[in-house]
Write a structure and sequence with these properties.
With 98 residues, the protein is mainly alpha-helical. The chain is built from three helices and no strands. It is rod-shaped and about 80 Å long. The termini are far apart.
Length: 98
């Protein structure tokens, strides 16, 4: 083995470790982005249903498979309930026929 082989092996290993670190770091930033988006939607009085659906979708994606992140699961349930409330038609607006 020459010195060049050893140096290239060390550089490849360092590049792989750096790539893994960058991927995990970017995933954490994305998870926080959707978590903050969910909290902001819960505070808004009448949120856009399309934004709520998109946030629910990404909360389910980034919440993990097994075990699921309990905070993401709770936010998912709260946003689903909020979406049902906003899409529920008002029965007072409909005219009844006699």
């Amino acid at each position: 083995m020459s010195a060049w082989d050893i140096v290239s092996f060390i550089l490849i290993v360092l590049a792989m470790v750096g790539g893994i670190w960058l991927l995990r770091h970017s995933e954490g930033k994305t998870k926080n982005k959707w978590k903050l988006s969910a909290y902001n939607l819960l505070e808004v009085k009448n949120p856009d249903p399309q934004k709520v659906r998109e946030t629910i979708k990404f909360l389910r994606i980034y919440g993990g498979h097994f075990p699921k992140d309990p905070e993401f699961t709770q936010l998912d349930i709260l946003l689903c309930n909020l979406l049902r409330e906003t899409e529920k038609p008002d029965k007072t607006d409909k005219k009844t026929k006699k």
